[in-house]
Amino acid sequence: MKISKIEVFPLTLPMKQNFFISGGKVGDLGQGAPHVYVKITDDEGAEGWGEARPSHRWSYETLESVTTTIEHYLKPVLLGESVRDLNRIHRLMDRSIAAGFSKGMPIAKAAVDMAIHDLLAKHHGTHLPGLWMGTFKDTIRLSYLISTNDPDQACKKAREAKENGYLAIDVKIGLNPKLDVQILEAVKQAAPELYFRADANQAYTLTEAVRLSREMERIGVDVFEQPLKANDLTGHAELRRKTGTPIALDESIWSAGDLIQAIRTEACDMVVIKVTKTGGLKEARLCGEIAKEANLGLLGGGLTESTLGLTASAHLFNYLDLQIPVDLNGPFFLADDPAADGLQVRDGTVHLSGREGIGCTIAEEKIQKYAFKRE
Ligand SMILES: [Mg+2]
């Protein structure tokens, strides 16, 4: 079971709507969304598929950097290596692309890690949870994503979420900080009983975050996600001491080491687990297990991956027994993608197929159809 081929496919997938966070546009209706698919073939002819979804307004990785990182730096050190030795595969990847402040180029590494997991599970004749000696669960609940500058639109969307059977709402804030309180109030009024997550994506200073967190206490927001810059753990710890609103960290946690620093500095109440930001399923699972042992709350998220990344993440979140509906929001934005069969999304619930590996079939004609072309 040695890696004999690694193929990288940069894609532009069609979108249904634009997607904004406080840092700017992360997906464009006109231009489509950047995704990178990876196919790994072993010397017995078995195939595994993985996916990266870089968003350069969210972190520094781009479609181009993910593609060249895998092609020029990861592939040369991985060819000929055993698929069975996942620790060694990660050691080789981390030596080839060294760490910066945290893990280096994690989104690129995640696509390789995902493809190796797909291949390994297929070799064992089992699905992902089977590979981890966990049981298969066939559903997971999604949260409903609201990202708008307009309080009336936020209210309409929150009502829609409720009517469509969603149990949780994830609101992007900091798009226009002057409107944050109005938007939060509109959402709470329209759907008061839904779990309420407000994600700032690092938009605020400590003073602004303290002020806003007190409004959140009054409104009844359940969690304030990543209010401050990613490297400001002491600021998040100070914010926690000044508010009753639970604080979650997302962009601050890229590895198990980052999580341990956050625990030591008492910087958060909850942590957002994402497969691709931590360099793949291996580290994301470790982060989830450490967070649980530290009695932190767990939130599940993604970077609008297509069906392939969504299915892999959903299996991991079920394995970790996440209780709060997860923010895997690719289907909110993507009009089509090359992966099928892994799952179906109906009424705010993901229904997983439980097929071998990650469980997706990849339509290679769509890989050709959506191949990235520089204008
Ligand atoms: Mg987030």
From TrEMBL:
Q: Which Gene3D superfamilies match?
A: Enolase-like C-terminal domain, Enolase-like, N-terminal domain
Domain of life, per lineage: Bacteria
Cofactor descriptive note: Binds 1 Mg(2+) ion per subunit.
What InterPro entries does the database record attribute to this sequence?
Dipeptide_epimerase, Enolase-like_C_sf, Enolase-like_N, Enolase_C-like, Mandelate_racemase_C, Mandelate_racemase_N_dom
Q: Which Pfam families match?
A: MR_MLE_C (PF13378), MR_MLE_N (PF02746)
Q: Which GO terms describe its biological process?
A: peptide metabolic process
Cofactors per UniProt? Mg(2+)
Which keywords are on file for this protein?
Isomerase, Magnesium, Metal-binding
What EC numbers are recorded for this enzyme? 5.1.1.-
List the active-site residues. K172, K274
Under the heading SMART domains, the entry gives: MR_MLE (SM00922)
Q: Which residues bind Mg(2+)?
A: D199, E225, D250
Under Gene Ontology molecular function, one entry of this record is: racemase and epimerase activity, acting on amino acids and derivatives
User: What sequence ranges are listed for the domain Mandelate racemase/muconate lactonizing enzyme C-terminal?
Assistant: 151-246
The entry sums up its family as follows: Belongs to the mandelate racemase/muconate lactonizing enzyme family.
**Protein name, entry field:** Dipeptide epimerase
Species of origin? Thermoactinomyces daqus
